[in-house]
Amino acid sequence: MPMRSSLKRVTGLGAAGEGVGHWWAQRVSSLALIPLAVWFVASVVALAGADYFAIHQWLSSPIAAGLLILLIVAVFYHTALGLQVVIEDYVHDETMKIAALLGVNALAIVLGLAGVLSVLSILFKGQI
Amino acid sequence: MTVQNRPLSPHLQVYRPQLTSVLSITHRLTGVALAVGTLLLIYWLTAAAAGAEAFETAQSFIGSWFGRLLLFGWSLALFYHLCNGIRHLFWDIGAGLDLPTAYRSGYAVLIATVVLTLASWIAGYGAMGGL
Question: Could you give the ipTM of this predicted complex?
Fold first, then answer.
């Protein structure tokens, strides 16, 4: 006896009911993170030992600030998607699972916002 | 439904670790480690935005031996996750899935991780003008 209804098969959303959306978002964010991560590591290496003024000078450029904001957004999006899979794999208690997922997503949003606001405040402060 | 005597998914206590499976779980472990590492990044950025004194405190923590150890582990995890992530993206388009290629790309990931990490630290110490 087939276990899937015709509707289930035709929507193609699978057992989790969300289709390939999560999988696809994980890949797209990882593609964005390849150049962003390389740029960020190269920037941090060049800034090794830099003082407060050098950091502010670096982030007073809209290009550096813009790339860093893109990096922060992509990092926390990719991190939230990745941790979601880990939690779904290992946390089997439904209440705990939902609590952990809510916590991870909330933390990703708050930390990402804190990072973006920090970059913006340094950018708009201008060179000191 | 008839219950068949099918093999179960890898049973960790009796499953011999292979390069492919070890790299796979390492990808997940480094991903979780990098998620924790974002705390350091956001601490550094918020400190830079808060003012010179807060930034000085953050820099002295990151510059301490413990901070540098965290940063070294973070860079190692980042380069591993980056290189192995690219390996995964090739698999996603259906390339390099055969076993010999999967092993070759696995070794390439390990070598690239070590080379990129060491090169970054050498360049970083160069930018600082020594230890």
Answer: 0.89
